[in-house]
Amino acid sequence: MKIATWNIERLKKKKNLEAVIENIQKIDADILILTEFDSLVELPFYPFNVETKQLPKEPYNYAESERRVAVFSKFPIKNTYETYDAFTACCVEIETDLANVIVYGTIVGITGYSDKNFKSDLQKQINDIDKFSQLGNFCYAGDLNTSFADNYYFTHFAREKFIECFKDNHLQNITHHLKNNIDHIVISQSLMNRFEIETSEWNTDLQYSDHKGVCINLSIKSIS
C-alpha cells in the first residue's frame, strides 16, 4: 500500500497541468494527499475523494477551483470527521485491504511559519491529532512547513511541538530524514510494527511545483 503527499503550489504553473497529473499517475499511490490543490487536476483513476471547504476569494485571491487539501483514495472512504478548520484540514477513515486507516490531510501555516496564525493553528492541529489518533491506525500527512533533517525551513517551536506530539501519540514521522523537505507522512507505531516501509521522492528539481512529493510504501513483513 502506497501513501503519498504533494503540495502542487495552487497549480500556479498551469502549463504543467498534464505533467502534474502524469507524475501522480506514475507514483500510483493508493492514498494521495494533495495540498494547495486545484480541481483542474482531474484524477478519475481515484474513485473516492474528500476535499476541504471551498475558499473565499480574499485575502489570497483564491480561484473557485482551489482547495487547501484533498484526499484521494483507491479504497472506500468509510467515515469523515470534523476537523478544527474545514478550510485547512480534512480527516477520513479509509477501508484498505491491509487495515482501516484514519487519514488526516493538512497544511500547517497556510503562508508558511511566518503566518500570523501559525502557532495557534499548530496547537489546534495537535489537539486534533490527540483526538483522532486514538481511534485506530492513524496517518497524518501534508505540508507541515517544517523540516526535520536539516535547517531547510523550520522553527524550533514547531519542530519541538511536533516531535513531542508524535511521541505522546505513538506516531512515527516516516519522512523525517528527507532533506530539503517540509511535506511529511506520519503514521501510527502499530502500522510500523506490521509493515516494512520504504520512502521515495519525486519532483526533486521542483520543476512542477515548489515542493517535492513524498511517498511511503507499506508491505507486510515477511515471517522468518
SSE order: EHEEEEEEHEHEEHEE
Q: Which CATH top level class fits?
A: Alpha Beta
Overall 3D geometry?
globular
The tally of beta strands, per DSSP, is 12
Category from helices, strands and their pairing: alpha+beta
What is the CATH homologous superfamily assignment? Endonuclease/exonuclease/phosphatase
- The overall number of domains is 1
Number of helices: 4
Gyration radius from CA atoms, angstroms? 16 Å
Spans where pLDDT lies below 50 across 5 or more residues: none
CATH architecture: 4-Layer Sandwich
Which fold name corresponds to the CATH topology?
Deoxyribonuclease I, Chain A
Strand order of the largest sheet: 3-4-2-1-12-11
Describe the main β-sheet briefly.
Answer: 6 strands, mixed
Distance between the termini: 21 Å
Strand content: 25-35%
Give the mean pLDDT: 95
Helix amount: 10-25%
InterPro entries: Endo/exonu/phosph_ase_sf, Endo/exonuclease/phosphatase
GO molecular function, one term: endonuclease activity
Organism: Chryseobacterium oryzae
Protein name: Endonuclease/exonuclease/phosphatase family protein
Question: What can you tell me about this protein's structure?
Answer:
It is built from four helices and twelve strands, in the order E-H-E-E-E-E-E-E-H-E-H-E-E-H-E-E. It is 20% helix and 34% strand. The mean pLDDT is 95. It has a single domain, classed as Deoxyribonuclease I, Chain A. The strands form two sheets. Strands 3-4-2-1-12-11 form a six-stranded mixed beta sheet. Strands 5-6-7-8-10-9 form a six-stranded mixed beta sheet. It has 224 residues and is an alpha+beta fold. Helix 2 packs parallel to helix 3 (156-168). InterPro entries: Endo/exonu/phosph_ase_sf, Endo/exonuclease/phosphatase.
